[in-house]
């Protein structure tokens, strides 16, 4: 653009220009218009890029929250199962299942022993002093 302005100034001063320079001066307005259009286009692309980055960050936050909720749900399920299994290690619960009383179904001793052993393997013992 500066070069074109220099040609334009030289032409106003009456200086002779070659054919290429004259053609360039004739297209000065078109070049300026194209430059302005390019600037506007660049601004638009920059804005779209910023919007895309914001949308990506928002999607990542949403995905992280969904993963966190899924992990919490898994942990809750594990804790519930551990709680149920730990109850099988208590004497009064074992008696209820051996006899099928107090809302417990009847479990043969062999199956109850399997559950008790599984509970001891999968459930860490709690320190009641903590």
UniProtKB/TrEMBL annotation:
Protein name from the UniProt record: CAPR2 protein
GO biological process: positive regulation of canonical Wnt signaling pathway
Coiled-coil segments on the chain, per record: 4-58
Gene name per UniProt: Caprin2
A cellular component term, taken from the record's GO annotations: cytoplasm
Record GO terms (molecular function): signaling receptor binding
Lineage top rank: taxon: Eukaryota
Cross-referenced InterPro entries: Caprin (IPR028816), Caprin-1_dimer (IPR041637)
Domain Caprin-1 dimerization: 61-129
Keywords of this entry: Coiled coil
